[in-house]
Amino acid sequence: MTSAGFAGRVGGLAAALGAGVVVGLAVAAPAAADDSGAGDSSPRAAAAEHSAGRGASGAGQSTAVPRKADPVRSAAIVSAARVARTAAAPAIPAPKAAAAVSRPTAKIPVAATPSATQSAAPLASAPASASAARGRRVTVFRGVHFVIPQSPAFFVKQVSGSGTFTTDSVYDLKDVDQYDWNKFTGIAFSPIQHDRNSVMVGWRYNLRSQEFEIAPFYNVDKERILPNEQTEVISVPAGETFQYNVDYSGVTISYGGATVFKPYPPGLRPNIWTAIRVSGWFGGNEVAPRTLTYYLKMK
Description:
- This protein is of the alpha+beta class.
- Helices cover 28% and strands 24% of the residues.
- It has helices at 3-36, 43-57, 71-88, 97-101, 122-134; strands at 136-140, 159-165, 182-188, 197-206, 211-220, 223-225, 234-236, 241-246, 250-255, 258-263, 276-278, 292-298.
- The chain has a six-stranded antiparallel beta sheet with strand order 1-12-2-8-9-10. Strands 3, 4, 5, 6, 7 and 11 form a six-stranded antiparallel beta sheet that branches.
- A hairpin with a 2-residue loop joins strand 5 and strand 6 (223-225).
- It is globular and about 40 Å long.
């Protein structure tokens, strides 16, 4: 066989093979189309159509391979749909602050609220007020003469105020010294020895009348100038308040409608440079038989 004849046979075989390939492709394409369904809109149909398109345009591709769904793309599609729905939803206005103010609130009557200056227990404060009106509470302890607290002052010209004895001021010496005069207050012109030259208010407790007695009392060069028992003594019941005034003219005491004034006795001259206010003193020559208290108020 010649070269030309061998070449012609090879060309005919190639032509026959090419025609077979073309026929196979033509038969496979309708079968794939019938398998997927012409009106199918499922993801498989979409993938087949997409693959067929790529096969027609791609060189040498004879079959369509379906692609899996892309999760990222699907999530993007869902998110876009949600954003579109959110944008389309009507906006809800926020509640106004005035709505909270419009609610009625209960009001507390002014009369029902106690004032800060009102006393929560006026009955309990009454005794304290009474004590304050009586003045300072003075105590004489059992077995001593002097009182606590002391109330000295220098260069005094006048001592005045009020006094109140109570049942705690009662005492019984059980002898004649019961008639001695105790010292309530006054002015002394001898700062070291108050009983040398002084002008004072005296007091004592009368066991018979069960009342207290007050009277002017003087010391002149250590000599006691006692009050007149008939004209210069005033009786005061326990719990009652009397008034007193001691100055450079004399002693004045009063209770109720009774008033006694006694001027300076002869030989007693006031001296402002040595004048000192006298504190209380029990006795006489005897000490207090029990602890005593009374009230002293000074102006």
